[in-house]
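Now for one record.
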Amino acid sequence: MTTATPGISALQLQRQLGLDRYETAWMILQKLRRAMVAPERTRLAGPVEIDEAIIGGRDTGPGRVLGANKELVVVGVEIRGQGSGRIRLKVIPDASSAALCAFVEENVIAGSSVRTDGWSGYKALAGRGFRHHPISQRALLLNGIGPEEALPRAHRAFSNLKTWLQGTHRGISGKHLQVYLDEFVFRFNRRRTPMAAFQTLLGLSAQAQPTTYDEVYDAS
């Protein structure tokens, strides 16, 4: 789960462990995912790209419009030269200023430089202690530059996330999406040290409170 590039699905784990029931393997992985958020993890350090994307369903709605089986997810990505540093991902109820700014305050060090698109929901960041640098995608298009170039690291993170969800897990329900996002973040942030990630997950799992069957299935 921590060292293989695509991770592992419940079906693969069931076969590997020789388990009779798929649900047993699924529960094992769900328990591990719930241990992947370190209580003492530090916030992202700027400069940081922030963007949102719709995960799940078919891309039938314009912009930030949600439809059936779709969830809105926001990402924060540290800018490290031409590459990416650490990331954070979270399911949010909407693209309002309250939801977006709360994510940034929770996950990015105050005073950091934050790059976003021109969406109005980000305007309040400047008044909340961040150096906000909005990028107009419309202006980029007028200059022949694609929207993915405005926030390339965020777009790349979402592309990799969607590929992983469809490739390894064949899609998932919105009910459990957040814990899969937590797994993706855990693995991405430790992609250069997979064996250290193995040891980290062992330690976090030993410290985490037990997760019951009812807690997993009653998750909202």
